[in-house]
Amino acid sequence: MLSLRALPSSARLATTRHAASAKAFVRPSTATMASKRDGMNLDKSTPDNVWKEILNAEEFHILRQKGTERAGTGQYNKFYEDGVYKCAGCGTPLYTSETKFNSGCGWPAFYDEIPGAVDRHVDNTFGMRRVEITCANCGGHLGHVFEGEGFPTPTNQRHCVNSVSIKFDPKK
Question: What is this enzyme's EC (predicted)?
Answer without folding.
Answer: 1.8.4.12
